[in-house]
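Q: Given only this backbone (200 positions), what sequence would you predict?
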């Protein structure tokens, strides 16, 4: 990953994380359906809190400089990332059956939540086994799914600008916000030599 790409990814991740935290504090700042869901479903708040923390700390796990100079910080941020994904992912799975736009959107978000938790768990297992390269590869996949929160916020306004009704757009976005991310991650991993990490 180039330095420029890492900076852009970090900026977007932190911006969306800050937005999520702002909505947690002031639900009226978010879309109307988010405020309603937060009032009706505690899982929404847990999902947003976990997702916000994963977005905020995730980019730093790809910093070669941080890893080399402060390995303990890298490890503790990684542990907090795993905890955040567990909270955010399980909350997403819990919310999926009651997504307002139906079963297709619900299945998309449920699949995202399941893969998010599994990929992150595999990254944890691999580092505990001492396999740094496999750990970094699974973390790349995990964070590609974390970035669904960013890409979703590009697709939603784009669909509105295109005049597509929310009820029609959202089931597609529920898949588009993460499937292309994962494909890009796999393309990056395919180009990277197996012996070294794709770090900034």
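A: Predicted residues:
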């Amino acid at each position: 990953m180039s330095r420029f790409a890492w900076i852009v990814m970090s900026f977007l991740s932190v911006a969306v994380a800050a937005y999520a935290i702002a909505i947690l504090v002031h639900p009226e700042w978010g879309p109307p359906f988010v405020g309603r869901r937060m009032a009706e479903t505690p899982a929404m708040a847990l999902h947003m809190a976990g997702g916000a923390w994963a977005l905020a700390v995730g980019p730093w796990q790809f910093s070669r400089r941080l890893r080399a100079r402060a390995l303990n910080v890298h490890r503790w941020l990684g542990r907090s990332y795993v905890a955040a994904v567990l909270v955010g992912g399980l909350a997403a799975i819990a919310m999926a059956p009651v997504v307002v736009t139906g079963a297709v959107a619900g299945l998309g978000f449920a699949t995202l939540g399941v893969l998010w938790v599994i990929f992150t768990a595999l990254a944890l297992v691999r580092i505990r086994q001492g396999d740094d390269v496999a750990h970094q590869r699974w973390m790349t996949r995990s964070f590609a799914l974390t970035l669904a929160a960013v890409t979703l916020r590009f697709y939603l306004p784009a669909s509105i600008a295109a005049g597509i009704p929310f009820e029609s757009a959202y089931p597609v976005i529920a898949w588009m916000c993460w499937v292309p991310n994962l494909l890009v991650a796999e393309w990056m991993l395919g180009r990277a030599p197996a012996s070294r990490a794709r770090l900034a």
